[in-house]
Amino acid sequence: MTEQQITDLGPAFSAYLRRFRDSLGQERTAKHFDTYCRGLLSDLPRKSVEPIALAAGTAVRTLQEFLVTAVWDHTAACDTFQKHIWDVVEELPTDPLGTVGVIDETSSRKWGDHTPGVQRQYLGCVGKVDNGIVTVHIGIAKGRFQTLLDADLFLPKSWSEDRPRCRAAGIPDDVKHRTKWRLAVDQWLRCRGNGVSFDWLVFDEGYGAAVPFLKFLNLVDQRFCGGSSSELHDPAESGRSVAACGRPVDGNARPQWGNDIDWLTKRYEHRFGGRRQRPCGWRIGNTL
User: Fold this and answer.
1) Which of 7, 93, 183, 184 is most buried when burial is the number of CB atoms within 10 A of its CB?
2) Are residues 187 and 153 in the same domain?
3) Tens digit of pLDDT for each residue in 78-136?
4) Residue 15: inside a domain, yes or no?
5) pLDDT band, very low/low/confident/very high, at 201 (cuts 50, 70, 90)
6) Which residues form the domain of 19?
7) Same domain, 59 and 97
8) How many domains is the chain built from?
């Protein structure tokens, strides 16, 4: 979008941003929030902090401090956003596929070792193992409408076990390593708590191979269609191996799966006050 187009949208965009005022605290924080959002929608060739600040006539250091040190309620802002999006989705025309939730991850290549979560790991953006970060997302699609609803940084074990490094990067002590499918579960729960529901949930084999994740979807009666790298078996029931992201997991890993399933059950009971007794029985299919 050009600066003129953004200007023409001014009143509507300002009204939209006002939704988040209560989550931002101080007025100056809200102004920096507005500046940054408008910069992301501009036609700047590079939409990093420096060019956005310079184009808006704001001190670069000031906008950097807003992104790094400003205190605001991220959870409340996310709740506001998800509730707004659900209001939009409900007004959309009926679509044969219904409302589809999409779980996926993205990555960004990074140089150096100071960015939170950075390490050598598989990065989809380059199709190989490289130095970078990975984030897990949940999105929503209905007809031609599509948007992201939530995102979490994947914190590798190497970071989680090095708390001084985490503190130096501004990562709170209560933020620990969680597997990607657990991040996806919490995102689904946040969406559900904000009134968002999906007729279908889709994901690739990275999540389709996590047996506890599939059991959780059965527990909450969430229909799904995901990818599997090979036939899945539940070691808690059959003792046979499971393919996890293409790597065989020994059937002796039953306690690990059992603990994960207990965690999922308690997570659901805590959030919604009850447990579903009947699994919905949907089996994993082909990747969409």
Assistant:
1) 184
2) yes
3) 999 999 999 999 999 999 999 999 999 999 999 989 999 999 999 999 999 999 999 99
4) yes
5) very high
6) 3-69
7) no
8) 2
Clarify whether residues 25 and 86 are in a common domain: no
Token pair listed for 200: 């279908």
User: Whose CA is closest to 115, among 155, 75, 62?
Assistant: 155
Which residue type does 268 have?
Y
Residues 37 and 140 in one domain: no
CB 218 within 8 A of CB 282: yes
- What's this model's pTM, rounded to 2 decimal places? 0.78
Please provide the DSSP assignment of the chain as one string.
--HHHHHHTHHHHHHHHGGGHHHH-SHHHHHHHHHHHHHHTS--S--SHHHHHHHHT--HHHHHHHHHH----HHHHHHHHHHHHHHHHHHSPP-TT--EEEEEEEEEE--SS-STT-EEEEETTTTEEEEEEEEEEEEEEETTEEEEEEEEE---HHHHT-HHHHHHTT--TT-----HHHHHHHHHHHHHHTT---SEEEE-HHHHT-HHHHHHHHHTT--EEE--SS----TTTT---EEETTEEE-GGGHHHHHHHHHHHHHHHHHHHS----S---PPP----
Q: Is the residue at 280 inside a domain?
A: no
129-188: per-residue pLDDT in tens?
Answer: 999 999 999 999 999 999 999 999 999 999 999 999 999 998 999 999 999 999 999 999
**Does residue 9 sit in the same domain as residue 137?**
no
Residues in the chain: 288
* Per-residue pLDDT, 283: 32
Q: Are residues 78 and 149 in the same domain?
A: yes
